[in-house]
Amino acid sequence: MNLVQKGAEADIYVTTWNGRNSILKIRKKKDYRIHSLDTRIRTLRTIREAKMISETKSFGITTPLVYFVDEKKCEIYLQLIKGKLVRDLPLNKIIKTCKEIGKIVGTLHKNGVMHGDLTTSNFILSKQGLVMLDFGLSQKTDKIDDYAIDLRLFKEVLNSAHAQIVDDAWISFIQGYEKILGTVLTEKILSQVSVIEKRGRYANVV
Q1: Domain of 111?
Q2: E strand or H helix at 23, and its extent?
Q3: What are phi and psi of 191, to 5 degrees?
Q4: pTM exceeds 0.85 for this model
Q5: What is the pLDDT of the chain when averaged over all its residues?
């Protein structure tokens, strides 16, 4: 079992499950929380994540298969997806792929799901196409503000990790997003993104 990512919420390992290459996600204990509360939070989030991954498949979005959920240990065994993170693609390929990411995110929002951690590291370009990862912060919602938070985060990621192409990549993303949600709803959500950005600027000044 090899550790491939150490995160604030969970650690990610490459391992096997029933002879299959697998990703193991282990939600870590938080010592600052009361033990019983910590256990409950980690258990509920583990169960919710597995459900959200499976539910997202019903929208036509490609996600890893969930092999097994160990509620007591707060662990999820997932299909290991071979491919390249969108983050690591050539710049022109990232711009092009952002349109497909926009369609995927639009489909999520159309079906009342906020991803909560939209980054170019949470998409893998595989032989099967674009695969969406990490639903640890996802939730069901019908709030425009939540969808705007998703978009604002992705825009921030483009600005910080892909500054050379941020404008073209963002336009490409919105083109894909609008294709799924339509112009009126997209403009409403983008308007809320602007509101969130202004809040941030004001907070920085203060």
Answers
A1: 84-205
A2: strand 20-27
A3: -60, -40
A4: yes
A5: 93
- DSSP code for 163: G
* Last residue in a domain, options 50, 79, 108: 79
Residue 206: band (very low, low, confident or very high) from pLDDT cuts 50, 70, 90: very low
- Write down the pLDDT at residue 7: 79
Instruction: Give the whole-angstrom CA distance, residue 141 versus residue 116.
Output: 11
Q: Among 47, 79, 111, which residue terminates a domain?
A: 79
Distances in Å between the alpha carbon of 97 and those of 70, 87, 166, 176? 34, 10, 13, 10
Q: Which of 109, 183, 197, 198 is nearest to 155 (CA)?
A: 197
Known catalytic residues are 117
Cβ atoms of 132 and 85 within 8 Å: the answer is: no
Q: Is 24 exposed, middle or buried (0-12, 13-18, 19+ CB in 10 A)?
A: buried
Say how many C-beta atoms besides its own lie within 10 A of residue 141's C-beta: 16
Q: By the 8 A CB rule, do 128 and 62 touch?
A: yes
Return the structure tokens found at 60. Answer: 């036509």
Q: Rounded to 5, what percent of the chain is helix, strand, coil?
A: 55, 20, 25
Structure tokens belonging to residue 63:
């996600």
Could you identify the residue written with the tokens 């989030």?
Answer: 45
